[in-house]
Amino acid sequence: MPSPSERPSVLFVCVHNAGRSQMAAAFLTHLAGDRVEVRSAGSAPADTVNPAVVEAMAELGIDISAQVPKVLTVEAVQASDVVITMGCGDTCPVFPGKRYLDWELPDPAGQGVAAVRPIRDEIEKRIRGLVDEIAPAN
């Protein structure tokens, strides 16, 4: 297993850190395990993770009910190799030498679980591609 300094690190950022970035972080942790260091944050974090997002992830056997939205810090960006933004616009700090991806995804805020499922499934598809690229299984 790679040492922590050798593992790629990924930061997922959205506005509230209550939906898209939480699902992405959970999928990456679930699919890549210890091969990747995972962070998520929001430019204006909510108080809690969206209950419909928690329910949609639980349907796949991934429990994110204990997750708490976190505020985006400069340190988190600096410590990450890949920064994936999901609708946080210009609030995400940009540093040279980092790889940035912007994933245009609908915001699940205020949506029921039925509306969250297609967003969840799209995030899972993108995360599977990311894992294959940055942390393929041996």
Distance between the termini: 10 Å
**What is the string of SSEs from the N terminus onward?**
EHEHHEEH
Name the overall outline.
globular
Mean pLDDT: 92
Based on helices, strands and strand pairing, what is the structural class? Answer: alpha/beta
Low-confidence stretches: none
Spatial strand sequence of the major β-sheet: 2-1-3-4
Radius of gyration: 14 Å
Count of discrete alpha- or pi-helical segments spanning 4 or more residues:
4
Strand content: 5-15%
Largest sheet: 4 strands, parallel
Query: How many β strands by DSSP?
Result: 4
Fraction of residues in H or I helices = 25-40%
Report what the structure shows.
Helix content is 35%, strand content 14%. The protein has 138 residues and is of the alpha/beta class. Strand 1, helix 1 and strand 2 (37-42) form a beta-alpha-beta unit. The mean pLDDT is 92.
Topology, element by element:
Blueprint: E1 9-14, H1 20-32, E2 37-42, H2 51-58, H3 74-78, E3 82-85, E4 99-102, H4 113-134
Parallel strand pairs: 1-2, 1-3, 3-4
Helix pairs in contact: 1-4, 2-4
Keywords:
single chain, 138 residues, alpha/beta, four-stranded parallel β-sheet, 4 helices, 35% helix, globular
In short:
The protein is α/β, with parallel strands linked by helices and 138 residues long.
